[in-house]
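Lab notebook page, bench 4
Experiment: in silico fold of construct C2
Operator: M.H.
Input chain length: 289 residues
Purpose: comparison with the prior construct
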Amino acid sequence: MDKRGARFFAIGATALSALVFGALTLDSHRQFDKLTNAQNLTPQVVSGKDVWHKYNCINCHTLFGEGAYYAPDLTKITQHRGEAYLTAYMRDPSRFYDEQRHRRLMPRQNLSEQEIKDLIVFLDWVSKVDNQGWPPRPILVTGATIPGTDLSAEQRRQGPSPGTPQTLPPGARPVTPEQDPIALGQALFRSVQPACNACHSVAPGVNLAGPSLSGLATRAAQTVADPGYKGGARDAAGYIRESIVQPSAHLVPGAMYSANGQSFMPNTYGSSLQPQQIDQLVAYLATLK
């Protein structure tokens, strides 16, 4: 190729690249409203965004993977924690985490009740933005380790590598391809939205946002037999089912998992899960004795 041909090739390639780039830019702008959940951008969402900036939340937290990385990414936080939990947490974070145990302590910002409501609405709007899988996984702060395993926190978040044996916590069962309701329930425990294992561990003594479910079936039977029980279940399986679909039917006295008569457990599973899925979850949880 002579100089003239090389010049025309460079000009043509540049023009073609510019055309493709321009087309992709126009296509992105065409989809922005849908991708960014713009149709639900209400005045309360904007007010919540102002609260986010006012208290410099991004100095510690991240949204869409962007921020300080000192504290958890909050892109999908409202899909992992319900409004009751987030409200109580923002009122007084020290009731949930302490510096001695977790080596971190979110400062109490003294937000007003309206600021808390607006901030939760903003975070809920953020959670519905189509971020196309970014960040690839939420940054979870649990403040706990699973006894009896030698996996790091990062390895537990990512899961086992192909061909690598996995050390399972107590009560866990390997998921089999057979239509085993217990194995299917264990799979649902990790895959439903919000994911059960985002708040609950099945290892003894490992309390996350919710209590450890180790020994759940035994405690369920004891709770139903207790005269102070206020729910409608008649046996352990019924209590487990009730805890999934009606978490506020019975609140454990003195436990920091509820506020103002409302459980922090999401109350959406009864409508978001099919009856057979609830049966599978109950079947799995009933094995945790």
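Observations: The radius of gyration is 24 Å. The domain at 41-127 is CATH 1.10.760.10 (Cytochrome Bc1 Complex; Chain D, domain 2).
Next step: discuss at group meeting.
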